[in-house]
Amino acid sequence: MSTVLKFLAFGDSHVPRYFSLVVSSVNSLVGFRPDIVLLAGDIVDRGDVSGFEFVRSFLRSKYGSEVPILSVFGNEEYMDRQSIFRERYRDIIWLDDSCWVSNLSCCKLCVYGSRGSLEKLTPWQSRNASFLKDLYEKRIYLARENLLKLRNECDIVILLMHYSPTYLTLEGEPENIYKFLGHRGYEKIIYETKPDLVIHAHSHNSKKWFAKINSSYVINVSVPAVKSVIAGLIRRFSGEISLEIITSHERKIL
């Protein structure tokens, strides 16, 4: 039996900075209607809660209220404002080291979402939020425990993050800042738990936005890196997964 899931994903829109690019690239996907929309954080700049409305309203105008929109928090959706985002945008499914499970028409889909982790605290974090060092390590453990469970329950499993779970999709960034962009501790987790798709953002200058870890596809959906949103089709047939990717400027089967 064949299963096909259609998704739309992007991050780092930093409204209003890249919002026009989001709009133009979504509008270029003529005839494409996703089963789910995945937002990989930094949708707004500097904790601007009201800025999220531009993206929410645009997506709802395109796809209606019946298409689930899932989002993780990026570093620009400040931690002390997360509750405000949740309260104001109740139709968005906010994932914060948590799972979402749904029986869609195509399949049983499970998404685990997290802001993710950094290998090294930024200078600001070191001065003002040193507790994040322990939290970043805890998040890796939580991801493993949840993904192991979901892998046994679901037809398709997606890991949605803001920070990168690997250095493989950071090529193009200065190597001396890799540790401030993600955490390689997730590579072992991905290899072991085998999510079908891993989505992240945060790397604006990546030149290699696709990689594979074991059988898992990993995609950097940062709008400034890809110059587009990402539309995709995950196909599962006889236990094997294939992925077709569509942007506003190319289409490829991975």
Quantity of strands, as a count? 13
Number of helical segments? 7
Low-confidence stretches: none
- Helix percentage: 25-40%
Which radius of gyration do the C-alpha atoms yield? Answer: 17 Å
Strand residue content: 25-35%
SSE order in H/E notation?
Answer: EHEHEHEEEHHEHEEEHEEE
Q: Which outline best applies?
A: globular
Helix- and strand-based class? alpha/beta
What does this structure look like?
By secondary structure, the chain is an alpha/beta fold. Helix content is 27%, strand content 27%. It contains seven helices and 13 strands. The strands form two sheets. A seven-stranded mixed beta sheet has the order 4-3-2-1-11-12-13, with no helix packed on it. A six-stranded mixed beta sheet has the order 5-6-7-8-10-9. The longest helix has 22 residues, at 132-153. The mean pLDDT is 94.
Quick take:
With 254 residues, this protein is α/β, with parallel strands linked by helices. The protein is built from seven helices and 13 strands. It is 27% helix and 27% strand.
Strand and helix layout:
Elements: E1 2-10, H1 19-27, E2 36-39, H2 52-63, E3 69-71, H3 82-88, E4 93-94, E5 98-103, E6 108-114, H4 123-128, H5 132-153, E7 156-161, H6 185-193, E8 197-200, E9 210-213, E10 216-220, H7 223-226, E11 230-237, E12 240-246, E13 251-253
Parallel strand pairs: 1-2, 2-3, 3-4, 6-7, 7-8, 8-10
Antiparallel strand pairs: 1-11, 5-6, 9-10, 11-12, 12-13
Helix pairs in contact: 5-6
Give the tags.
single chain; 254 residues; alpha/beta; seven-stranded mixed sheet; six-stranded mixed sheet; 13 strands; 27% helix; globular
